[in-house]
Structure formats: structure tokens, C-alpha cells
Here is the input.
Amino acid sequence: MWKKPWHIKEGFLIGGGLILLGLLLQVTVGPVDWSFFAWPMNLLVLLLLLVLIGGAYALRQKCYVIEWMMHSGAAVPCLAYAALLTILMGLLPQVQGGGVRWLSQMLQFWPFAIIWTWMMIISALAALNHFLRWKVREIPFLLNHLGVVIAIVSATLGNADTQTLELTAYKGEPEWRAFDENRMMHEPGLAIELHNFIMETYPDNTPKRFASDISVYTEDGKDIRATVEVNKPLKVNGWKIYQYSYDVRLGADSPYSVFELVRDPWITWVYLGIFMMLLGAVCLMLFMAPKPVKV
Here is the structure.
């Protein structure tokens, strides 16, 4: 048994143990299946997490591990592991069915999910501790930790509710049907009609810009005329409509456009969590700034 008090060394050992646990799960049960957390299961899991975190905080004086989790000895190693895995995710192409085994599907990688869950629990306990010890000087720390919790929970539990569909619209024909990656048909509640496909090329005839002049019709009666091009999506009723593809054989004469429709109902909460972290950092700099010396 480790001697008390615990410090950063114990934090790295526990984090390493969690990664090994994740690898064992990856080998035995396969990748993380986020579809299990689709609504309303993600709400139930969130409520259960809140109850467990509240119960753990209430036992902090009776359980040394919980008390230790609210200090830097737990937070710093966890942040280091999370940063390393996130950097790997950024460096390696994230593709399905290819790339580096496991690491190219980082969001389905158990060690990644477990470490970020560990980070969320540590941050939630710290946020609760700062809130219950309420003082003005606690505000930056409360914003930082609560922002981490909101961002992680929204990005993970909300992942299953994210929809990505593909819709092909021909000129003069409103299309209401879209398809997911498994070619299952969906009706997203809107139709797209292509009026004109626009393409600009370089002197060597390679595409410089391509876009679509479209109308979007919604079930609630909206009729929106817009031009959609790459990296400039149109937002309609919670959907982002991206210019995705066209008939590459015909180029500028393509009779259709392919659009990617993306819906992420939790993304606002992710942005809120990030904003709170940034605000907390600003407040920390202001609160901790050295006071001017009186002469």
C-alpha cells in the first residue's frame, strides 16, 4: 500500500493503470460504442454521474483517495496523459478502417475515453469544492474546472446524438432524402433544390472554387435561397449544410451537387465550456496580478 501523502508520482501510476485498463478493454470488448449513449441514455448517465460525484465529495474526509483527487497530484498527471493522447489524435489521420491501429480511431479508443473521464471527475470534484468554499478569489478556479466538466461531458455524451448525412440534389428537383454512412435513408426535415452548380478553375483546369446556388425548404415553411461553398456552410434548423462533392467527370456541367448535413445538438454546450475555461484564465490573470507598490 502506498504511503500517504500521495503526490504526482502516484498520479502518474494511477493514470498509467487506467491506460492499461483501457487497453485491456480495447482488446477484449472492442472499440467504445458511443451509440449506446444516444438520447435519452446520455441524460440518464449524466444524472448518475452527478449523483456519484456529489456522493464522492460528501465522503472526501473519510476516503483519502477522493481528497487527493482534488489536488494537483491527481490533476497534473491526468492532464499530461490527456494532452499526450490528444496530440496523437491531432498528428495521426483519424480514419475509419485504416491508419494506425486504434490510434487512428482515437474517439473509440478506450484509454482516451477513460483518461478524459478521469479528468472530468477530477475537475468536477474540484469545481464542487471551489463552489462550496465560495469566495471571490475562487471564481477563476470554479470557471476553469466547471468549464472542463461541461466541455468534456458535452463532447462525449453528446457524440452519439451527432448526425452526419449525405444528400444529393439534382437541378430543379427538391430532395428530402439523405443517407448516413451505412446508406440508411433519413428524412432530416428539409429539402434542397439545386438551381445552379458553380465552378471556377485555374489555367490548368484544376478546381479553384466550387459552390451551389440552392433553395432549402423546411417542414415548418421556410424557403431559403443561398449559395453554399466549401468551408462556408449554411445553417438551417440546427443543421449545417456543407458543399461536399459533385460529378467530377462533368466538372462545371455537373447536374447535381452532393451536400453533407451535420447536426450536433450539444455543440453549444461544448462552446460554453471552452468559453468558461478562457474566462477563468483571464480572471486568474487579473486576480493574481501583483498589486502596485505604494511609494
